[in-house]
Input
Amino acid sequence: MMTSVNILDFFEHQPLTSSLILFAYQTGWFPMADDEDGDIYWHSPERRAIIPLEKDYLKTSLLKSFSNSGCTFTINTNFQHVIEQCSNRTTTWINADIISVYCDLHQRGYAHSVEVWKNNEIVGGLYGVSIGSAFFGESMFSHISNASKHAFVFLYEQLLTKNFSLLDSQYINDHTQSLGAITVSRKEYLEMLTKAVHRSDIHFI
Output
């Protein structure tokens, strides 16, 4: 059985491919590029951020804002645009290699985007990867106030409808915490992950 040290060594000596990323997700790891040197680093936090998938879990204020947004929402209409917009910030872990391999994951049916539209323009969105009943949230962006939060609510409702059991948020931060993110131990996360990724009857779309 591979230890966390052995598996990290394995990842670090492999070229970045969509198949490697799928294996990583299923073992509790995910890649991020260094903003300065572009090198890929692999992460498996001791405390993993997740957002519980439960009916009536989201804040009423968030749902009200979503209902009054005046936006429309689509899935997988322009994945490449969404991931490129997510990378378009002062400091980013999404480099050209990450964009390329996640676009490949999208072509293979694993990576998905949510687009937020207003006045016939994409004003926000998010992307992530689905395996079984697990959805691994990667990044989001907004060009207008709260667009990323509204993309999240749309995603959340989609996951509830499809009976997903795990919504992974990787590291907790102020933004994801405002959406309802909590942390669990790596052991707890891996137990949830193992059950989720082996659900062959669940599909995002």
Observations:
- Residues 147-161 form the longest helix (15 residues).
- DSSP finds eight helices and nine strands in the chain.
